[in-house]
Each structure stands twice: as C-alpha cells, then as structure tokens.
Amino acid sequence: MPYIPDFGPVLRVWNVLLASLRYTFMLAVLALSFGCLIGLFIALLRISRYRFLSVPAALYINFFRGIPQMVYLIWLYFGIAMATGVDFEPTLAAAICLSTQYGGYLAEIFRSGIQAIGRGQTEAAMTIGLTTAQTYRYVILPQAIRIIIPPVGNMWVGAIKDSSLVSLLGVMELMRTAQVQTTMTWRPFEFYTTVALIYVCIVWLSSKGVALLERRLRYA
Fold first, then answer.
1. Helix, strand or coil, per DSSP, at residue 25
2. pLDDT tens digits, 22-62
C-alpha cells in the first residue's frame, strides 16, 4: 500500500514548531556573537610577533577547527560530566560548544581581513601619533569589517544549520521539536520535510540580508 502523506499533524502543532525557532535563533546569535569576540581576540594573538602569544592562538584554531562538532558536543556534555562531575545545562553546553568552535573559524576570517589591509596604512597611522590600539580601532578594523562581512555572513548561515545538532542534548530547538512530534504522530516524512523547508527559508532570507548589508557597506 503506497504511503499517503498527511500534513494535518504538522498543521496542528505549527505554533509549537514556530515557538521552537526561538532556541534555534538564540543559539545562532550566541554562537556568532561570542564567536566573534573570541575570534577577534584569537586573531590578534595569532598575528602577534611574539611566539608565546601566536603559538597558543594557532593551537586553539587548529584544535577547534579540527574536532567534529558532534564529537565536541558529546564530549563536552557527557564526557566532561563523567570525568569531573560538572553537569552542564544543555542550552549552556550547546552555547559553549558553538561559540568556542566558531571562534576558531572566525579567528582565521578576522586574521585574513586584518592582514589584507596594507602595511602602509598602519605605518601612516603611527606617524600621526596614533597608538597601536587606536590604529586598529580607527584605521584597520573599520576597513577589515568590509572584507569579512561575506564570510561572517556565511558563518551565520552555518550557525543556523549547526544549531540542529544540539538536538542531541535535548534542547528543544526546531529539530528536536520535530523529533518529539514524529515519535508522537509517526509522521517523519511530513515533519522532517517541513523542518527542511523552514531551514531553507531561513537560510535564503539570511543570505539575502547579508548580501544587502554587503552592498550597503561597499557603497558607504
């Protein structure tokens, strides 16, 4: 007997699915916000001429870019709890995992953007009396931001999609909500199709927003 799709169960809990999006966006915002702070800090250490600063920064980048996100989630939430007795709240564990890992990726993005600015501009800023901190604040970083907007926008899109992995920890974001509803209705095709389309719409709108911001900064 052929399978007959029925999206009625999806429509009946549509408000529940939409409500779960707040966790999806919250995790993505946390991942990108703290990831940017961590990434900028690590990037500045990475480009330092002092090896005792640049080497640990490089190790951080290589470690967090190299570990699979699912492995990191499971290790942080389950492994650390077993080894130390410290129990992380699932949402906190997810936020820590995404932020620290995205920090590694964003560090390389920031480093590339900063180093793309000509050395002559730094020297010119120094000659007019600006300190190193002022040079970065008023000369280097404003120009680097224009360069890094596209890759940072891609990281935002990635954060939206990667937030689905935290369903492993029981965080009731979009994917976990769909899993729960699937076990209650036995309608996996309908729920996962709906979730896939929701992610596609969010990613498409996010990509359009990033492209618009990029154009505005280009002609500002």
1. helix
2. 989 999 999 999 999 999 999 999 998 899 999 999 999 99
Where in the chain are the domains?
A: 8-218
| H/E stretch holding 119 | helix 119-127
Report d(CA 20, CA 161) in Å as an integer: 14
Band (pLDDT 50/70/90 cuts) for residue 219 is low
Fold of 8-218: MetI-like fold (1.10.3720)
Extract the tokens encoding 205: 């709108």
Burial of 113 (0-12, 13-18, 19+ CB in 10 A): buried
- Which pair of structure tokens corresponds to residue 190? 């309908």
Other beta carbons within 10 angstroms of residue 120's beta carbon come to: 8
DSSP 173: S
Per-position b or e across 38-66, b if 16+ CB within 10 A of its CB = bbbebbbbbeeeeeeeeeebeebbeebee
pTM above 0.85, yes or no: yes
- State phi, psi for 192 to the nearest 5 degrees: -70, -30
Element (H, E) at 182: helix 174-185
DSSP assignments along 40-108, one per residue: HHHHHHHT-S-HHHHHHHHHHHHHHHHS-HHHHHHIIIIIHHHHH-PPPPHHHHHHHHHHHHHHHHHHH
Whether residue 156 contacts residue 8, with contact meaning beta carbons closer than 8 Å, is answered with no
